Amino acid sequence: MANERRVHTRVPIETKLTELYSPQNGRQSVQGIGKDVSIGGMCILCAVAFTQGQKVTMQFPLPDTPDTGETLRCEGEVRWIVRDSLAYLIGVQFLNLKSTDKKIIESIIKQQRSGDSLWVRLLSRLKPARKVKSS
After folding, report:
1. Number of structural domains, the chain?
2. pTM, whole model, 2 decimals?
3. What is the DSSP string of 109-128?
């Protein structure tokens, strides 16, 4: 965005939203992918056009917990929309975020900024490959 007004640091995140709908649209859920997140909101890629100011409810799995089914569910307001090829990028500002959810998002941001994701932790446990002597 040319006129940058963000208050909070955003970090990249790639998470499929398990739920994304607007109560104004009769609670019909659409597919969406979270592209980045901050304590204030999330950028979402989706195939459906929302309108600026529209209230949405979303749910997404927490990073590094694919097998546990842990999700974060929250409400937001669409702040901006950009048409991107065949899809839309929407900026959603979180509304009424519970303190426990806020702490979860803060830990996601901290992990992403430090590079401390599940894959980094797993790869750090691997032993380096031994060099094979050539004959």
Report:
1. 1
2. 0.76
3. HHHHHHT--HHHHHHHHSPP
